Amino acid sequence: MSGADANDPDPEIDRINLRLARSFLDVVDETWRERGFNSRSEFIRHALRDAITHPEGAGFWKDLAISEADLDGDVIASEEMRSTYGHDDE
């Protein structure tokens, strides 16, 4: 579902659906909690802004998406992802 929802208090905000492998979503959830974000949505908005603001880091996100496809149910800890790709907490 995308587009404005009549029940949303802010008509300027659109809601989107995002499909992720359960194992990857587990990593996303672990990461946003470790980094102190208030919610999954807040973390994903931050990640998207970061990808747009710093396109030179797009390789990291592309590699992350590829790793999601390769997981096949295996979970990779966020600490391992950070050490592998050199992406530090801000």
From TrEMBL:
Record-given protein name: CopG family transcriptional regulator
- The Ribbon-helix-helix protein CopG domain extends over 15-52
The record, for InterPro entries, names: Arc_rbn_hlx_hlx (IPR013321), CopG (IPR002145), Ribbon_hlx_hlx (IPR010985)
Q: Which GO terms describe its biological process?
A: regulation of DNA-templated transcription
Q: Which SUPFAM superfamilies match?
A: Ribbon-helix-helix (SSF47598)
Give the matching Gene3D superfamilies: Met repressor-like (1.10.1220.10)
